[in-house]
Design goal:
Strand content: 25-35%
Distance between the termini: 28 Å
Mean pLDDT: 88
Largest sheet: 9 strands, mixed
Helix content: 10-25%
Number of strands: 51
Shape: globular
Structural class: mainly beta
Low-confidence stretches: 1-45, 127-137
Number of helices: 10
């Protein structure tokens, strides 16, 4: 007997049936039913929460979640989790609500908590309610005194008049995207500025792509359908562009809707495609610099561009795109993966990354950067962009400054005016939401939440600060970015806190294998499901530093956890080899304390190799304003001068121990790292690094036997370096990792994959691997593998009546038969349609328990069965994996009333390879009066 679950006509089901003769079916995985009955959806003895569904069997199972409403297009990737384990990243379906993930050989156990997240934020309805209860709302932190004003304010407009315009060129083809991508830009630049001027390029993030003017209708597709227009996301940074242009910069903001509408097909989320688009525009500007008469009018009417001084600004996925563009400009990607293969005729001096994604966790270590972290980000909620700072440590020379700027009260969208309600041409939303009331930090109107104009002013100011430091070389703005603790009046009331790594910092104590911890602290793993090893559990809160990547646990990411109940015992961090603080003015520490906490005092001391100790002073750390919905466990940079160590005669070239002693009441803290610090910004000269890219090999599974393939790996560049290689173990949920030394021209990364052939229809099976830079390397495509493509035809399906003419009280039945068994569940649907010839079977004419189990509570009075669900009533059906038949049953009820025969009318449907609905034949059933 088939289980028919509640659903809407827009849900994706994939069965093609015929009422009279065989009809070949289409071959797409099914996301199952959009909703389940009140008791959830059983799979054998396993009960799944409402909204979840499993299709297929064995290695061909797919886990599907369907939202009761459209999931807005955003930059963070949707992820499925089982407890603390990442199951994977599902593919979206065109209905905007369904997401499907192949499970392979992984098993779902009874009691496992399934979760849907995007950037750490729960998307499933139950999860949203639970997340509000996970941790009680903490009292708001007492406001800190305003930071001292920096002597130079980069947000003050400059002396130049500005001009603006647009250009549109022929679209370009980018590998991996079936449709061409537009080449459009909004240009704002100075007039009357002398000589060639530095360039700032903006790249927006992932947002809805199309809209219908004058309506709330927005679309997420490409190209835009007839009657709609592209959403002009590239026009959303005009405030920052005009500020920079007045200061003498030529700015362009490029459109990327063509990537947004297709990047779900890209393994890296579109990072390489966005890099290609950025470099395509820079190449055009290089041409126009050499032949100015050939440039579009918008380019000719502004000052000439100096492409040896370029700043890239990327928002959300655009941030990851410009990071990749900077990396690709220094270390060219494999030609087959790249959408630009010409010479590099520009120099990237720095990046500004606004609420960025970092799916690859592969920052460009030798390109200075500022990462803006919005404290109320409702899209990339885990603030994973912190990795653009932390992930550069130890990878290259360390001369490039990498700054993180935490903007309290800023959301994700309002940095772009075209994503801001009241400013945008298309419908727009505030991405931060509080489902159960007022959030004390982030709800509009609270003391800490910024308005859209305040947020845009702060964004423009810190973009200008980065341009002035990275491109202009003005060290007077560095204190706004490097953790010194200064503010710019032009940023208005925004409270912006910063810390940094790189520049004139020398590594001292970086938690990991090179240090030991004793006393009142312990080494902790930033990402680990074991709460005895992890730094911070998900129930306690979120830290941008501990953002999840591809696997948990993830070796190589560590911190020092400290906890005390009174004046604590000292925490001793000892380096396995002496470190040098020679030439440093201060010891800079990045320390996390709980949100809303105040007055955490730590006495800081160091010891040299001969045993001499110096007490450097006391550091005070306050927590950020935070709530259960914010990633506010973020490190503050504190500095203590080294003058006491010099007076005490310590050998600053041979420091072995850092001691931290908590003072006052009970508390907690986490040490991220400690550095020797002195002022200034050195030139960031790129080092010769080795580049690693993983590829994907797609092979036919074959009909029999076992074949061995290898994951494609490209190693380029110069010298040698180290990466950490991760390989999931099939069928276990475990991931192995090891450090690999790589050199161009060698095959140091060798991952064999066995593919077993068969003759039954099933899903494609992916065998994956991923890498992360450790030292002397950069990583382009961090993920690759071997995909065994199903090469067997989908079975033909027949539908035949069993009992389609019955008396009331009996069941209408149809039998579904496959020509041969499949390795996956074959799913489909029947849309109930109004009866046009005679009375229709109503909700009172069918078994009440059956009706409510399938559609939930149905209120009186009786209504036609086809109108049970508003918008359309569908019965969902499936043939289980390994079987060849099932039945669709509609049990009728005896009502004791004399009445004419009543009818049921159904239409079968499926979807083609593009997920367009394909109608099938209609059929009818008749129910006669029992009398």
């Amino acid at each position: 007997m088939i289980r028919v679950t509640r659903g809407l006509t827009t849900a994706v089901a994939l069965l093609a049936l015929t009422a009279a003769s065989p009809w070949p079916a289409t071959a797409q995985p099914s996301p199952g039913s959009p909703q389940t009955g009140p008791s959830g959806s059983p799979l054998g003895d396993l009960a799944l929460p409402p909204g979840w569904h499993v299709t297929g069997g064995g290695a061909d199972r797919q886990l599907v979640w369907t939202s009761p409403e459209r999931v807005p297009a955003g930059d963070a990737r949707v992820e499925f989790h089982a407890g603390d384990r990442l199951l994977g990243r599902p593919l979206p379906r065109p209905d905007g609500r369904s997401f499907a993930l192949p499970l392979g050989d992984l098993r779902l156990e009874e009691g496992t908590q399934l979760r849907v997240t995007a950037g750490g934020r729960r998307l499933d309805a139950a999860g949203r309610a639970e997340s509000a209860r996970e941790r009680p709302l903490a009292p708001a932190a007492a406001p800190e005194a305003p930071l001292p004003v920096n002597p130079v304010d980069p947000g003050v407009p400059g002396p130049y008049r500005t001009v603006s315009g647009e250009y549109a060129l022929n679209s370009v083809r980018i590998p991996g995207l079936p449709q061409p991508v537009e080449m459009r830009a909004t240009v704002v630049g100075p007039t009357g500025a002398p000589g060639k001027r530095p360039v700032v390029l903006f790249l927006h993030g992932r947002h809805d792509t199309c809209y219908t003017p004058g309506t709330e209708d927005v679309r997420f597709t490409w190209p835009c359908p007839a009657g709609t227009r592209p959403i002009p996301s590239e026009q959303g940074y005009l405030r920052a562009q005009r500020l920079l242009a007045s200061q003498g910069y030529v700015t362009l903001s490029i459109a990327a809707n063509g990537i947004n509408g297709q990047d779900w097909q890209a393994e890296d989320g579109g990072a390489q495609a966005r890099s290609s688009l950025v470099r395509q525009h820079l190449a055009r500007w290089a041409d126009w610099t050499a032949h100015r008469a050939d440039a579009p009018a918008a380019v000719r009417k502004t000052a000439p561009a100096d492409l040896s001084r370029v700043l890239l600004v990327g928002h959300s996925r655009g941030g990851e795109g410009v990071n990749r563009a900077a990396l690709d400009s220094l270390n060219p990607p494999p030609a087959a993966q790249d959408g630009y293969r010409g010479p590099v005729r520009w120099k990237i001096r720095g990046n500004v990354l606004i609420g960025p994604t970092v799916f690859g966790q592969n920052p460009a270590p030798d390109v200075p950067s500022t990462t803006i972290l919005p404290g109320c980000d409702g899209d990339v909620s885990d603030l994973q962009g912190q990795i653009y700072v932390d992930g550069t440590r130890g990878v290259s020379r360390g001369a490039a400054l990498h700054s993180a700027a935490y903007v309290i009260g800023a959301n994700h969208n309002f940095f772009n005016s075209e994503w801001t309600p009241g400013q945008a041409k298309a419908a727009a939303i505030d991405d931060f939401s509080s489902d159960d009331g007022v959030d004390p930090v982030c709800s509009p109107g609270t003391a800490t939440r910024l308005t859209a104009t305040q947020q845009q002013a702060a964004g423009a100011t810190y973009i200008a600060a980065s341009a002035r430091l990275f491109v202009g070389g003005d060290d007077a703005v560095r204190p706004l970015l490097d953790g010194t603790g200064r503010r710019a009046p032009s940023a208005g009331p925004a409270r912006v806190l910063t810390h940094a790594v790189g520049a004139h910092r020398t590594p001292a104590f970086l938690p990991g294998s090179s240090v030991t911890v004793s006393g009142g602290g312990r080494p902790c793993a930033q990402v680990d499901p074991d709460t005895t090893r992890s730094c911070l559990s998900s129930e306690e809160g979120w830290s941008p530093h501990f953002a999840y990547w591809e696997t948990s646990p993830e070796p190589g990411r560590d911190a020092v956890a400290m906890k005390w109940t009174g004046t604590g015992s000292p925490v001793t961090v000892r380096s396995t080899r002496p470190v040098s603080l020679a030439g440093a003015a201060s010891l800079a520490l990045r320390v996390i304390v709980p949100p809303n906490s105040t007055g955490t005092d730590l006495d800081v001391a160091v010891t040299d190799a001969s045993g001499r100790r110096a007490d450097l002073g006391r550091a005070r750390v306050d927590g950020l304003p935070g709530s259960p919905r914010t990633a506010a466990y973020w490190s503050r940079e504190v500095r203590v001068p080294l003058t006491a160590a010099t007076r005490a005669g310590l050998d600053l070239k041979r420091i072995t121990t850092l001691r931290l002693t908590p003072r006052g009441g009970a508390g907690r803290a986490w040490l991220m790292d400690a550095w020797g610090w002195r002022p200034g910004t050195p030139e960031a000269r790129p080092a010769p690094l080795t580049r690693v890219d993983l590829g994907r090999l797609t092979v036919a599974e074959g009909n029999s036997g076992v074949r061995t393939y290898r994951i494609p790996v490209t190693v380029s560049g110069r010298g040698s370096g180290q990466v950490r290689l991760f390989v999931p173990v099939p069928g276990t949920g475990e991931v192995t990792s090891r450090i690999v030394t790589v050199r161009p021209g060698r095959h140091d990364i060798d991952v064999p994959v066995e593919v077993r052939g068969n003759k039954r229809y099933g899903y494609d099976v992916a065998h994956d691997a991923f890498v992360k830079a450790v030292r002397g390397t950069v990583v382009g495509a961090h993920r690759g593998g071997v995909t065994a493509r199903n090469d067997d035809a989908m079975p033909t399906v027949r539908l035949a009546p069993v009992t389609d003419d019955v008396t009331e009280g009996s069941a209408l039945k149809w039998r579904v038969t496959l020509s041969e068994p499949a390795d996956i569940e074959i799913s489909g649907g029947v849309l109930l349609k109004p009866v046009t010839d005679g009375p229709e079977l109503s909700t009172k004419d069918v078994d009440r328990a059956w009706l409510e189990a399938r559609f939930g509570e149905v209120t009186d009075p009786a209504r036609p069965l086809s109108g049970t669900v508003e918008g359309g009533t569908s019965l969902w059906l499936s043939v289980p994996a390994g079987q060849t038949s099932t039945e669709v049953t509609v049990p009728t009820a005896r009502d004791g009333e004399a009445e004419p025969a009543e009818f049921l009318r159904g239409a079968l449907f499926t979807y083609d390879g593009s997920w367009e609905q394909v109608p099938g034949p209609e059929f009818t059933g008749r129910v006669r009066d029992a009398a």
